[in-house]
Specification:
single chain, 7-stranded parallel beta sheet, globular
């Protein structure tokens, strides 16, 4: 969603074919399966509505010496570039960007958030493919100095800056790299639900992490990022129910929402989290303007903890049948309700 003179408009729709030689940052099982002719028809429909279409090739990708594998990649790229004919590609792998650029000098390339760009030095690595836009690492939603530096280098290099606003990934997640590597592994038979379950469990145990997520940004707070110089906002959630998207897009376009903050977030849809986890959206007024953007991780943690502790005491944060207590100054899970307990059980999975 770009910023225009008249406010926020939806100018782009992104999509991807469920299966292919290049992954797309989500488990294949979560992406609706359609025929190729249906995908092309959808792209044409998007164009007829005056919207751009962005195709995702954004899972980490490793080239192979196998001729059959390369032939499969070439056929896939031909279909994407010559039949789908997207307006832009979102890619995380620099070698894949270079491979695409040799085949198409004009296609707009967006650097995926999966590439983890957090600094001007990170962005400089991609200068050889002349990226049109970078979707920043989701942590930068809570890192003002790094975000300002990226906006400045974006202006200098003519690269648009985009941030995610509904992504609930844990701040400084230790499993981020292994999660995306798993999604890129086509031979893997299991979904990525264990990673999402681990993340959800961490938030249930220490709920300040709900507020600390870098890309969990309220519609009312978009102006803070506009004033910094961010030009585009991305609503993630292609694995969420179809009914979810219009409601959430309307909230961000209108810069206002009333209800459960959890409802706005791209959480594991299997959890149906908004039915049993509640954070009063309006009670978060003032949270981001006073956020300790430039202070230490510990200061940010304590700030988020103070907020969630107060919300809990005022019954504006609640988890069904679950209680919390303060341990070492941090609001911590005391007794889990049955749905919270199911998530905690799932966290015990061993990551390979």
């Amino acid at each position: 969603m770009p910023i225009g003179d008249n406010g926020i408009s939806v100018s782009e729709v992104y999509g991807v074919f469920a299966s292919g030689p290049v992954g797309h940052g989500r488990a294949t099982s979560t992406v609706p399966k359609v025929e190729k002719n249906q995908a092309v028809s959808f792209r044409k429909m998007v164009a007829s509505r005056g919207r751009s279409f962005v195709y995702l090739l954004n899972a980490p990708y490793q080239f192979s010496d196998d001729s059959k594998t390369m032939a499969e990649l070439d056929r896939y790229l031909y279909w994407v570039l010559c039949e789908v004919r997207p307006d832009a590609l979102v890619i995380s792998s620099l070698p894949l960007m270079q491979y695409v650029r040799r085949r198409d000098q004009n296609i707009r390339i967006y650097i995926s958030t999966i590439a983890g760009v957090k600094s001007p030095e990170d962005l400089e690595r991609f200068s050889c493919v002349s990226p049109s836009r970078v979707i920043l690492h989701h942590d930068l939603g809570k890192e003002r100095n790094n975000l300002l530096a990226m906006v400045r280098i974006g202006e200098e290099s003519n690269t648009e800056i985009e941030i995610m606003v509904t992504e609930s990934c844990k701040y400084r997640c230790e499993n981020r790299g292994s999660h995306y590597a798993h999604l890129a592994n086509r031979s893997s038979k299991r979904s990525d639900r264990p990673f999402m379950t681990f993340c959800s469990a961490e938030k249930l145990v220490h709920p300040y992490k709900f507020l600390m997520s870098g890309a969990a940004i309220r519609p009312e707070d978009l102006k803070i990022y506009e004033d910094i110089g961010v030009s585009h906002f991305k609503i993630s959630g292609r694995d969420m129910p179809a009914s979810w998207l219009p409601e959430v897009v309307a909230a961000y376009q209108g810069r206002s929402y009333k209800g459960n903050f959890i409802r706005l977030l791209d959480l594991d849809p299997h959890l149906k989290a908004d039915q049993w986890i509640y954070i009063d959206h309006e009670a978060l007024d003032g949270f981001l303007p006073d956020y300790p953007w430039t202070e230490s991780y510990e200061s940010q943690k304590l700030y988020c903890n103070d907020w969630i502790t107060r919300l809990y005491s005022e019954k504006k944060f609640a988890v069904e049948y679950t209680t919390y207590c303060t341990r070492d100054g941090i609001l911590t899970l005391n007794r889990a309700g049955y749905r919270a307990e199911a998530v905690l059980d799932g966290r015990r999975i061993i990551f390979n």
